[in-house]
Design goal:
This protein has about 260 residues and is of the alpha+beta class. The protein is about 45% helix and about 10% strand. The chain has 11 helices and 4 strands, in the order H-H-H-H-H-H-H-H-E-H-H-E-E-E-H. The chain has helices spanning about 1-15, 20-25, 35-45, 60-70, 75-95, 105, 120-135, 150-160, 175-180, 185-195, 240-255; strands at about 165-170, 195-205, 220-225, 230-235. It has a 4-stranded mixed sheet with strand order 2-1-3-4.
Length: about 260
């Protein structure tokens, strides 16, 4: 079965149906393509969907949640793609909010979608499923970190299943300035933090670290789970590649705990 589905997906990608075309024809009237995460959070957390009036989750929301909730996020990607395709097919034919991968508090703003039974072919489902699975937001949209305060970070971390990253900094710290002007503005760093972390910046000249957290120098990066427990403390300024490695190791350690 796995072999046949992979052959089918390969055939579609090489010669057949275009997943984006299926989305445009059959999904785009309800599912918007991409909205930055910070705007989505403002829409749902602060505005009760009155800012965007969304009818359904966006494609970037669906892609992220499907890869996190269906199958093994750290396992074989071909197998996970098969599982995601099977899930989407079942949901399209037999929609039920109880089996949705989206957060319940987000789903509360949406109606249950109508069934697509008889309105979409297996080939179209396979094509659009693969397109959603591999969807990436436009990089130019992810160009700046959106820092929040610690209390809001705790709420967001619980709701979104993300890690809190506290940057301990000082305006007189040369290495802090260097880190903020270089590494923390690198597109790859911004994209990874925006995807999997909730960034908090604590300026020691104006505020104290929450919960008696410890630091030894500036800058220091403290990574916490959604309950405020320390996952890792990393002092110092880092170049892009080294900092990306640190972020991935922290993300991996959280995944191991789950």
């Amino acid at each position: 079965m796995r072999y046949m589905l992979l052959l089918s997906l390969l055939y579609l990608s090489m010669f057949g149906m275009d997943g984006e075309e299926v989305y445009n024809k059959k999904c785009s009237s309800c599912h918007q393509l991409y909205i930055p995460v910070e705007i989505l959070m403002k829409n749902f957390m602060d505005q009760n969907n009155r800012l965007l009036h969304l009818k359904a989750p966006t494609v970037n929301q669906l892609s992220y949640r499907l890869k996190q909730q269906i199958g093994d996020p750290k396992g074989d990607k071909d197998i996970q793609l098969m599982e995601v395709t099977a899930f989407i097919q079942n949901y399209l034919l037999y929609p039920d909010k109880q089996k949705s991968v989206c957060l319940p508090e987000i789903l509360s703003y949406f109606d249950t979608m109508p069934s697509f039974k008889g309105k979409i072919s297996d080939e179209e489902i396979e094509a659009v499923s693969e397109w959603i699975y591999f969807y990436l937001p436009p990089k130019k949209e992810v160009n700046k970190l959106q820092f929040v305060d610690y209390k809001k970070a705790l709420i967001l971390a619980k709701r979104l299943g993300k890690i809190i990253m506290i940057e301990v900094t000082s305006p007189t710290c040369h290495y802090c300035i260097k880190m903020e002007k270089r590494t923390l503005k690198e597109p790859d760093v911004v994209a990874l933090i925006s995807s999997d972390f909730i960034p908090v910046r604590v300026d020691l000249s104006r505020q104290k670290l929450p919960n008696n957290l410890k630091w030894s120098m500036t800058p220091t990066f403290i990574f916490l789970d959604s309950d405020g427990n320390v996952l890792k403390t990393v002092p110092g300024a880092w170049m892009k590649d080294d900092f990306l490695t640190i972020l991935r190791e922290v993300k991996q350690s959280k995944g191991d705990e789950i």
